Amino acid sequence: MPDGLVVRVAGPDDAPALAELRALWSDAAADAAFERRMAEWLDSEGDRRTVWLACLDGEPVGMASLFEYRRMPRPGRADSRWGYVSNMFVREEHRARGIGAALLAAIVAAADERDYARLVLSPSERAVPFYRRAGFGAADAAGGGDRLLVRPGRPVE
Question: Of 32, 65, 90, 122, most Cβ neighbours within 10 A?
């Protein structure tokens, strides 16, 4: 992990930085209207989505998010939750320096703390080796034609 890297949960004041990163990811420009849309989206996601921001020497260089799925209760079974990892992005000039790994480590730590049954994601082909190194494996045939990777949660003690 590079010196000067801070990975933290993003808040409402981070909407402009997240909008800028999302625009870079989309190869587009962020403007005030897009920043407002990002702020509205963050607000509407409520407590079910957590977004992390990676800053290197105070400059936003990466982001990632985790959406919480809550299973419908079943008689005789404990309630469970799982997380969907998405929106993982690191500025191109800062890739291969451990920033993505630091973002993913923050997500995995949060998932473990929340006792998620699993983490699921649908990576680009290029990102598959990165996620496999972090303990994600292929989902069963239930994933259909999607490229889903799963990381089991901590075993229940």
Answer: 90
